[in-house]
């Protein structure tokens, strides 16, 4: 009885393991299409950093000057990554996406009182302190 | 690179502080861990060593455990595991570990930390017991049990 | 079952060897069939090791004392629960149990990566199977086979060490082992990344949950061990800087460092070599902790000396892993360059970096102190030891610095914090911390370290609470949500961050509990029935303890008890009756002659009353049933805040689970998904 069990166990294990080699079943060894590439991962990280900075600004942890400086730096990095992606993939869809992202990144709020350019999401003008007309459409911090 | 250089300096600074902390920590708090024979040899070589706090490991002599009724004062004898002639009398004022025993049927090793008193009794601050051998019975013991 | 189990262990030997060889070979030659075959060995090994483990449990349940392992760790009258736990009671079973968990996690890792991270899998499988092969070889050939027979059948087993007959002990080792083994998966991915050359943050991203899972189990396991020590050793302490405790702390320290430093690599592309070193180091330390626990290499209250040759096998194994990892890292150095530099000392990166330095320094200090007897023996021929004074002296400042960083980290800006930023964010928290310190000082807390810790705890808690509050408020305003919904979305959108803050709250509670140690009260008192001892709590309140009597029970084979002496103490607090508390001494039938003390604990939110029966005339009470032999010596202790350790653990678990919960938002499929025919430029093996 024990011997029979042992035989069945060994046979099952050997068959299970050798089957792919004998019958030529191949497992994929390639990177799948729905996974992020290195550049995509970096884009995601940069956009997350941008979101974080906006959050810090909205909760008052960063003041306007710090926020503007940080955002300028991050935006430059984000654009560089996006351009890299564009170069490597060159599809229309990607270009459209980049254009949209770029527009969002570069868009600034102009103060109606003194014409000073303020970063998106600002509620008050950094130069004269006047209230800005809220223009938010999407994107939570 | 200047930034990196500054960070390297910081890193080396932290490493130096940590090394210093560990070094002084060890030299201030270290205790020798000896067998009774080694301790005896050290004291013979340098009588002032008697004052130094040490940790000693030895085997509890069966039947040597006495306690003062009504107060937590224990006295027992340990001998060197390798040379049973070398013994030390230990006094301990606290609760002994559960695994401590001076029964004939058990081999109990004790690790005591403390220092010698004037009268030659070793006053222990801590007593730990090791009874590993107890749980790893030899086949003969199992056959007997 | 036991025959099949033993056979399964032998069958697993060629299976794992095959899996390791085919994994690496298939990866190098890009042969998908070989890789698939290797992946199947992972599943097969799990089944085989499961059978082998069930065989051991079967041996315990059926009292098969012809086996060395069963005979040494069980006895007929051992409670069934502890018979099952016998699988991890001794070194031999522990090794098999370790292997079981490792094979389970390996199977899980392969199963969850059937359709992704394919470029890593051949090497991941090869590495995992190589490690399992090592453990199987050790089990079968290093004289630690749990299936080894004695050659005769003893009437009864030697019995389980009574200190291990405690329910915490049934959970504590498995939990730690889960933590140790789960870390193997990140290690295997790191090795795979070094081998296939894809050295961006991908290997970290895919193993992030594994790292957190491992950390979660390590933390829970360590605290359960503290709970065990607190209840079972009867000294009222929970941490003794004992070598085995230290051994489990070491991988926890480096894993904690790793958990923080990977965020720097993900966000800023820095610290790549450092992270490789940490993953390697943590893995090696988990192996070290596993074998140290029961190897007898360093004496400890937990070690039950067995065979020491295994220590040398393990040391060689660990040294080879470190050497292999170091060679691979050096070989890949060009691909491990930092993409950025730290811009300022005053930045969140820098806070993370300091956290890492402190944790690694603590690891070195603890390792040094633990291994000092061995090192000094090797170099000077004399054993030198250090005890708790050393470890406290080194680690208390480290702990305080970490506590401060837990407050600074969340609010300091990334990259470069301006003076305005610092003032804006730290003014109030510092005020709150100092305020709490001042209030405590005025109410009589004068111990410097305790005051510092409590003040810093308040500083950190205030910062975290304000973070949650501000975040929720901002979200509620911008999204126009109610506060509950805003809070929920805030946390669920960035669970790592907010889960991490909750974990920090748990850690703060635990640290505060540690800091209360100078306020522990202990009184030893020999009493006759009816006598009263009064105990003043440092937090106010008076306990009135009346010794009632000690009663005895003789022989309860169902509970494996030879005898019991149970002392009852009536407790009142500020005149209000709390009830009787019991503490006892008991002797076990098996192992014969062993006794243990069971403590009585009354827990309140702010303090524990802890009583132990230190000494009683056992002969008089049990053998002679002498009514005049009732005098008993008790140890009465008050332990302020000790319950916060266990409470902190729950908070820490909740925070970790938030981070571990499967992500709802799937990684968005890239817009190029339609072009599925185009092969990706994925790095293939080289």
Question: TL;DR?
Answer:
The complex is a heterotrimer of chains A (141), B (145) and C (686). Chain A has 141 residues and is mainly alpha-helical.
Report on the structure:
The complex is a heterotrimer of chains A (141), B (145) and C (686). Chain A is mainly alpha-helical. Chain A has a domain at 38-107. In chain A, 60% of the residues lie in helices and 4% in strands. Chain A has helices at residues 2-23, 38-58, 64-89, 92-106, and strands spanning 108-110, 117-119. In chain A, helix 2 runs antiparallel to helix 3 and helix 3 packs antiparallel against helix 4. Chain B is of the alpha+beta class. Chain B folds into two domains: 1-30; 32-140, Nucleic acid-binding proteins (OB fold (Dihydrolipoamide Acetyltransferase, E2P)). Chain B has a five-stranded mixed beta barrel. Chain C folds into three domains: 2-347, no CATH class; 418-516 and 648-661; 519-640, Tick-borne Encephalitis virus Glycoprotein, domain 1 (Sandwich). Chain C has a five-stranded antiparallel beta sheet with strand order 3-4-5-6-7. Classes of the chains: A mainly alpha (141), B alpha+beta (145), C alpha+beta (686). Chains in contact: A-C, B-C. Chains A and C meet through helix 1, helix 2, helix 3 and helix 4 of A and helix 1, helix 2, helix 15 and helix 16 of C. Strand 1 (31-34) of chain B pairs antiparallel with strand 1 (383-385) of chain C, so a sheet runs across the interface.
Strand content of chain B: 25-35%
Helix/strand-derived class of chain B? Answer: alpha+beta
Mean pLDDT of chain C: 88
Strand order of the main beta sheet of chain C, please? 3-4-5-6-7
Widest sheet of chain B: strand order?
A: 2-4-5-7-6
Number of domains of chain C: 3
Task: Quickly count the helices of chain B.
Answer: 4
- The SSE string of chain C, one letter per element, is HHHHHHHHHHHHHEHHHHHEEEEEEEEHEH
Low-confidence stretches of chain C: 300-306, 665-686
CA distance, first residue to last residue of chain B: 73 Å
The portion of residues assigned to helices of chain B is 25-40%
Please describe the structure with a list of short key phrases separated by commas or semicolons.
heterotrimer, A: 141 residues, mainly alpha, 4 helices, 2 strands, 4% strand, elongated, B: 145 residues, alpha+beta, OB fold (Dihydrolipoamide Acetyltransferase, E2P), 5-stranded mixed beta barrel, 7 strands, 33% helix
């Amino acid at each position: 009885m024990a011997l029979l069990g042992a035989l069945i166990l060994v046979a099952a294990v050997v068959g299970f393991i050798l089957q792919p080699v004998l019958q030529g079943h191949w497992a994929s060894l390639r990177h799948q299409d729905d996974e992020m590439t290195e550049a995509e991962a970096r884009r995601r990280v940069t956009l997350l950093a941008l979101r974080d900075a906006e959050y810090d600004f909205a909760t008052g942890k960063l003041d306007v000057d710090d926020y503007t400086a940080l955002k300028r730096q991050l935006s430059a990095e984000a654009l560089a990554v996006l351009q890299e992606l564009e170069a490597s993939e060159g599809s229309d869809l990607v270009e459209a996406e980049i254009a949209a992202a770029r527009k969002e990144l570069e868009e600034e709020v102009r103060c109606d009182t003194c014409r000073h350019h303020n970063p998106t999401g600002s509620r008050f003008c950094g130069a004269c302190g006047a209230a800005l007309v809220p223009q938010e459409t999407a994107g939570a911090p | 690179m200047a930034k990196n250089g500054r960070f390297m300096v910081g890193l080396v600074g932290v490493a130096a502080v940590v090394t210093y902390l560990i070094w002084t920590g060890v030299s201030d708090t270290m205790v020798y861990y000896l067998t009774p024979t080694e301790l005896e040899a050290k004291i013979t070589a340098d009588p002032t060593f008697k004052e130094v706090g040490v940790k000693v490991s030895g085997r509890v002599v069966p039947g040597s455990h006495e306690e003062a009724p009504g107060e937590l004062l224990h006295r027992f004898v340990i001998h060197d595991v390798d040379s049973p002639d070398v013994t030390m009398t230990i006094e301990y004022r606290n609760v002994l570990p559960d695994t401590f025993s001076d029964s004939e049927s058990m081999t109990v090793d004790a690790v005591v930390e403390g220092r010698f008193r004037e009268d030659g009794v070793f006053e222990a601050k801590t007593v730990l017991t090791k009874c590993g051998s107890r749980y790893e019975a030899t086949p003969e013991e199992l056959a007997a049990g | 079952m036991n025959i099949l189990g033993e056979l399964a262990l032998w069958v697993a030997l060629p299976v794992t060897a095959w899996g390791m060889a085919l994994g690496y070979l298939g990866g190098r030659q890009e042969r998908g069939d070989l890789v698939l075959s290797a992946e199947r060995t992972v599943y097969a090994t799990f089944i085989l090791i499961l059978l082998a483990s069930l065989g051991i449990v079967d041996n315990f349940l059926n009292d098969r004392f012809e086996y060395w392992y069963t005979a040494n760790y069980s006895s007929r009258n051992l409670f069934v629960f502890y018979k099952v736990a016998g699988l991890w009671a001794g070194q031999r079973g522990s090794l098999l149990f370790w292997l079981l968990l490792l094979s389970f996690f390996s199977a899980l890792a392969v199963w969850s990566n059937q359709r992704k991270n394919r470029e890593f899998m051949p090497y991941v499988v090869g590495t995992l199977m190589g490690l399992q092969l090592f453990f199987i070889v050790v089990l079968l050939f290093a004289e630690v086979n749990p299936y080894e027979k004695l050659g005769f059948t003893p009437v009864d087993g030697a019995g389980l060490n009574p200190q291990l007959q405690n329910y915490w002990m049934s959970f504590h080792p498995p939990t730690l082992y889960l933590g140790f083994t789960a870390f193997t998966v990140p290690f295997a991915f790191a090795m795979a990344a070094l081998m296939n050359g894809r050295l961006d943050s991908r290997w970290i991203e895919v193993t992030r949950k594994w790292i957190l899972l491992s950390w979660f189990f390590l933390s829970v396991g360590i605290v359960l061990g503290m709970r065990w020590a607190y209840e079972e050793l009867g000294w009222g302490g929970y941490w003794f800087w004992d070598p085995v405790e230290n051994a489990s702390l070491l991988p926890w320290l480096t894993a904690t460092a790793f958990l923080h430093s990977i965020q720097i690599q993900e966000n800023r592309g820095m610290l790549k070599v450092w992270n490789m070193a940490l993953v390697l180091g943590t893995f090696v330390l988990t192996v070290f902790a596993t074998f140290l626990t029961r190897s007898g290499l360093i004496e400890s209250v937990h070690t039950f000396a067995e065979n020491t040759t295994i220590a040398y096998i393990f040391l060689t194994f660990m040294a080879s892993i470190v050497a292999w990892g170091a060679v691979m890292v050096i070989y890949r150095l060009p691909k491990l360059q930092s993409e950025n530099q730290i811009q300022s000392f005053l930045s969140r990166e820098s806070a993370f970096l300091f956290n890492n330095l402190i944790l690694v320094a603590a690891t070195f200090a603890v390792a040094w102190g633990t291994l000092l007897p061995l090192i000094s023996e090797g170099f000077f021929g004399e054993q030198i030891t250090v005890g708790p004074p050393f470890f406290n002296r080194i680690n208390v400042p480290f702990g305080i610095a970490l506590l401060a960083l837990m407050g600074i980290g969340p609010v300091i800006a990334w990259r470069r914090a301006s003076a305005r930023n610092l003032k804006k964010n730290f003014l109030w928290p510092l005020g709150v911390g100092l305020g709490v310190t001042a209030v405590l000082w005025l109410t009589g807390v004068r111990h410097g370290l305790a005051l510092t810790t409590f003040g810093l705890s308040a500083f950190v808690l205030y910062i975290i609470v304000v973070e949650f509050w501000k975040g929720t408020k901002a979200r509620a305003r911008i999204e126009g949500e109610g506060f509950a919904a805003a809070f929920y979305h805030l946390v669920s959108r960035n669970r790592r961050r907010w889960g991490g803050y909750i974990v920090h709250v748990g850690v703060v509670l635990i640290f505060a509990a540690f800091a209360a140690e100078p306020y522990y009260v202990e009184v030893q008192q020999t009493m006759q029935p009816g006598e009263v001892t009064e105990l003043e709590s440092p937090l106010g309140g008076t306990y009135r303890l009346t010794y009632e009597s000690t009663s005895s029970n003789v022989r309860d084979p169902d509970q494996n008890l030879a005898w019991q002496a149970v002392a009852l103490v009536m407790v009142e607090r500020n005149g209000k009756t709390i009830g009787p508390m019991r503490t006892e001494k008991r002797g076990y039938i098996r192992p014969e002659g062993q006794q243990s003390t069971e403590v009585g604990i009354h827990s309140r939110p702010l303090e524990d009353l802890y009583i132990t029966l230190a000494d009683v005339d056992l002969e008089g009470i049990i053998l002679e049933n002498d009514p005049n032999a009732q005098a008993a010596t008790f140890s009465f202790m008050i332990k302020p805040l000790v319950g916060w350790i266990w409470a902190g653990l729950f908070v820490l678990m909740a925070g970790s689970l938030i981070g571990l919960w499967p992500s709802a938002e799937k990684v968005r499929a890239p817009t190029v998904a339609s072009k599925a025919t185009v092969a990706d430029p994925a790095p293939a093996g080289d």
